[in-house]
Amino acid sequence: MEINKLVRPNILKLKPYSSARSEFTGEGSVFLDANESPFENDYNRYPDPLQNKVKEKISGIKNISKESIFLGNGSDEAIDLLFRIFCNPGKDNVIAIAPTYGMYEVCADINDVEYRSVNLDANFDIDTEAVLARTDGNSKIIFLCSPNNPTGNLLNREKMLTLINEFKGIVVVDEAYIDFAPQESFINLIPKYSNLVVLQTFSKAWGQASVRLGMAYSSPEIISYFNKVKYPYNINILTQRHILKVLEDKGLVESQTKEILAQKEYLIEQLNKMAKVKKIFPSSANFVLVRIDDADNVYQKLVDKGIIVRNRSKITLCDGCLRITVGREDENKNLINALSQI
Ligand SMILES: *Cc1c(COP(=O)(O)O)cnc(C)c1O
To answer: Are 234 and 75 in contact (CB under 8 A)?
Structure first.
């Protein structure tokens, strides 16, 4: 696929900001090029605009080249950049499933791009024909989220591949919850599909939501457009240093993920025993979507007890549903105890 034909003309011809540190080659020892303070205090120099050390580390863990990685202020930055790279405001459109993560539509609205949503089927899976039927010559991106938020299920892999194969635009696979799922990441398919962008984040299984660091993985060509459009120093040095330390302890994240999955089983088992729980939807994430009698009332009663879950009862196909994040053992027991008293 000719990706440059999908890129907005103004971005294609954009001459990106050139930072002082990227304008010379060789080894510097005296830096008088960036109007920084010369007094060393750990923070006086501008950070690496391409975060090479962090990307090297991620590259090893994910088995993908550095040139295929973009780092952003959460995966939310990557979502916004996708609109700014590919979608002409007031003209182009994107397609997404419903229900799904809310940021795709918010970013579409901010960028004045038409957002077309296609309801999932009764199993919360993709209706590929309906999705393709909504595309036209101005459709630039299809957003797929797997495991999907707020439903929790993995989308059917074959159906996702059908869309990647058939759609003449970019297919984004948001894998924010992939670490909890018994399925291989789509990252491994990037060399095969030039229109595939995979999003991941440090905000969920990695336990770093407050740090704001997310990844987009794609072909070096697409990543070069991300680099062209992003703020020159979008990831600060505190984040870069911190995440290098986090990446040293992959074992901790793996054991925490196991514990969360075990706690999810406990939650499901306990919820299943409750008469007011009508349905627990299959989840491959760190949360469960639950249909419950009188959801709004249950939600408020939980809030009154200081227990906050997400009320999704007004969302497409989620009437009467609460989304419950799996917490620590004591938190989950607390929730079950409170629910049994309502
Ligand atoms: C939580 C979540 C994200 C994470 O966004 P960050 O900006 O990286 O914190 C992305 N996509 C989905 C579907 C999510 O649920």
So the answer is: no
Rounded distance between C-alpha atoms, residue 86 and residue 140, angstroms: 6
Centroid of ligand 1 to alpha carbon of 273 (angstroms): 31
CATH architecture of 251-340: Alpha-Beta Complex (3.90)
Is residue 326 helix, strand or coil? Answer: coil
Give nearest CA residue, ligand 1 atom 12: 176
Q: Distance between the two ends of the chain, CA-based, in angstroms? A: 56
Q: What top-level class would CATH report for the domain 3-248?
A: alpha beta
CA 155 / ligand 1 centre spacing (Å): 17
Domain spans in the chain, listed from the N-terminal domain onward: 3-248, 251-340
User: Residues near ligand 1 with C-beta < 6 Å?
Assistant: 74-76, 101, 145, 149, 174, 176, 201, 203-204, 209, 214
**CB-CB contact of 261 with 180 (8 Å):** yes
- Per-residue pLDDT of 205-247, as tens digits, reads 999 999 999 999 999 999 999 999 999 999 999 999 999 999 9
Query: Cis peptide before 99, with omega less than 30 degrees from 0?
Result: yes
Q: What is the pLDDT of residues 16-54, one digit of tens each?
A: 998 888 888 899 999 999 999 999 999 999 999 999 999
Query: Which of 70, 73, 75 to mutate to test ligand 1, by most ligand atoms within 8 A of the CB atom?
Result: 75
